[in-house]
Amino acid sequence: GCALAAVAMLLLPRASPGRLAAPALLAGLLFWQPPRPQEGGFRAWVLDVGQGLAVHVQTRAHDLLYDSGPPFGSATDAAERVILPWLRAAGVRRLDRLVLSHPDSDHAGGAASLLGAMPVEVVLAGQARDARERAAWAARLPQGREPVDCARASAWERDGVRFEVLHPAPMRLPRGEVSGAHDNDASCVLRVSGAAGALLLSGDIGTVAEAQLIARHPAGSLSAAVVVSAHHGSRSSSSPGLVDATLPEHVIHSAGHRNSFGHPHPEVWARWAQAGARNWRTDAQGAIALE
Please, are residues 203 and 166 in contact by the beta-carbon 8 Å criterion? Predict the structure, then answer.
């Protein structure tokens, strides 16, 4: 609105009063920054990246990105088309953390583009349990950018908001040995908690990893106001045990329009709804914001 008024003033006859103030008004708009959360609070946006996942979490002075979305063909990816334009529009010029849940392309496909275009202080990533996963990470990340194993990351706090990796537990395997678990079950599960509630980001874990998560943490420690459903709402995740352990008010499913997997699955949708949560989906509603 201010920009339109300033342009209209510039189009007035040269001698019109106040016309010279228009350039100053336009210049002032360049210094505007979107408002940020207050101390102890956070905002998060589950971005619409199609069949994949990318979540931007913002505190008073810091920004975190959880996953970087999928590639879009061989020429571009979600970071170039969605995430970077979004971050720039939000006034974000650097990231405090980039958390990559696991090396599947729909979660880490935009990592190289993101790291090449924006400073990132620390990269946390799902642990590479075998040679295949180490090769997958090498293909996803720029050369020389080694991620920190999220399973070994200590909890941290930014601006009164706590960030904690709840899964997986550190594993000690001989080099090249395969643990036997699916790489989805090694996804980093991140809990973000502030003064008003918590957000649970669960990557692609399935029912086996969900059971391990519940067994390792005391009752009530997994509760969250908002859950981003594991594996895009797949039937192989969102077990009754996890639903009972979290009992959120809202559940967000990040899925692609008319995706071939049928995500989110109707059984999963119904299970969360029966527990009292409101379901949201990015393929139908676009990016979902929470505060």
Answer: no
Average pLDDT over residues 151-173: 89
What is the mean pLDDT of the segment spanning 115-125?
95
CB 208 within 8 A of CB 185: yes
Decide: residue 20, CB within 10 A, 0-12 exposed, 13-18 middle, 19+ buried.
exposed
| The 226-228 sheet, strands edge to edge | 156-158, 161-167, 189-194, 197-201, 226-228, 250-253, 278-281
Continuous segment of H or E residues that includes residue 166: strand 161-167
Q: By percentage, how much of the chain surpasses pLDDT 70?
A: 94
Give the pTM: 0.89
What is each CA distance from 7 to 17, 25, 129, in whole angstroms? 14, 10, 59
Maximum separation of any 2 CA atoms in the chain, in Å: 80
Residues composing the chain:
291
Taking only Cα atoms into account, the Rg of the chain, rounded to an integer number of angstroms, comes to 21
Q: How far apart are the first and last CA of the chain?
A: 26
Q: Which of 55, 76, 40, 33 is nearest to 157 (CA)?
A: 40
